[in-house]
Amino acid sequence: MRHPQTDRLSRRAMAFVLAGGRGSRLKELTDLRAKPAVYFGGKTRIIDFALSNAFNSGIRKMAVATQYKAHSLIRHLQRGWTFFRAERNEYLDILPASQRVSENKWYMGTADAVTQNIDIVDSYGVDFIVVLAGDHVYKMDYEVMLREHVESGADVTIGCLTVPRMDATAFGVMKIDEAKRVLEFLEKPKDPPGMPGDPDHALASMGIYVFSWPFLRDLLIRDAEDPNSSHDFGTDLIPEIVKNGRAMAHFFTDSAVCTGASPKPYWRDVGTIDAFHQANIDLTDFIPELDIYDTDWPIWTYGEIVPPAKFIHDEDGRRGSAISSMVSGACIISGTEVRESLLFTGVRTHSYSMLDRVVALPYAQVNRHARLSSVVLDRGVDVPAGLVVGEDPVEDARWFRVSEGGVVLITQPMLDARAAALGT
User: Fold this and answer.
1) What InterPro entries does the annotation carry (predicted)?
2) Which of 49, 55, 319, 335 has its Cβ near the most Cβ atoms within 10 Å?
3) Are residues 163 and 60 in the same domain?
4) Binding-site annotation: residue ranges
5) Binding-site residues for alpha-D-glucose 1-phosphate
6) Which residue has the higher pLDDT, 122 or 6?
């Protein structure tokens, strides 16, 4: 349910986005960038989804806490998210771990990232804080969650996903009563509790929390003084509130933004090579579950100024074509057959090559006679002529990263090591 702009709680809230994690399960894709800065969907970065949700929900005060290899992320925010105007009381602050509290103290946990910036949050003059993970892909109206938080009188409201019970072993899981009050918060339990009336499903935390700022501020100060705390929301603060306060669950289905031909709520943790590859390839479906063409709930990002994509050559075996694929601006498909693939900005492919289920990050180049199947190409890689990947798993594993699901990740250092070993 949408509310008038003058009545929106989001105007009294700020979004604090936790974007400091590496995302080690993405392997070499995060060697040079944090997980929130990883590319997704042809033009965007993963963090754009959390920030766009906040902006579209009406939140105009945001902060992004960074830590691990943050340059790529900071540069993206500086280029793509500079449209906030201070004279309209709009702000986006980038908060790198900068030893503000102590010369030897970086962010020690998710809660500590907020604690070290209490003075900055105070300067916003907000009533509510929406704590967000910056590394998930979804569409959600935080205004709905804010209203539920206020109406329930909660100390914390936790965004939750309904998942098959045994799939919840990788999440923080909540046991709730019929009024959605959280009775237990269990971190990655081996035997997750089922939901009331639905024992086959469990409630998993999305890493989204709504607090009143005065309540959270006091809690953070007490937590900072606790030598036994790891200063983490999921490990320390949320269990403390569940035990001694009032924690409420908010169902993602109640605030998910569903648009286009697919009515299903969409949320993905693209934290593995397989999940990242599949979520990108899914966008090429005839009716994808995630509608990135929706102009009512757009995903804002850095709009690089580039020329249109171009397809050239039209002869047997050398035809520039793309079937069931997404091809971004500045791509040149020169005599290449592209199928079920997603090509980011500036990808160049050359004659007699073939791409099948390939996710090619910006400015990758595929030279002549290459054949790639179920591949992720890192930004700027130069695939040598004649390279065949995706047909011989043993050979692929000699040189490249092969995931559990058989997706091959190719980076430039891998190609360079292969060339050196083969003397090419």
Assistant:
1) ADP-Glc_PPase, ADP_Glu_pyroP_CS, GlgC_bac, GlmU/GlgC-like_hexapep, NTP_transferase_dom, Nucleotide-diphossugar_trans, Trimer_LpxA-like_sf
2) 49
3) yes
4) 107, 172, 187-188, 205
5) 107, 172, 187-188, 205
6) 122
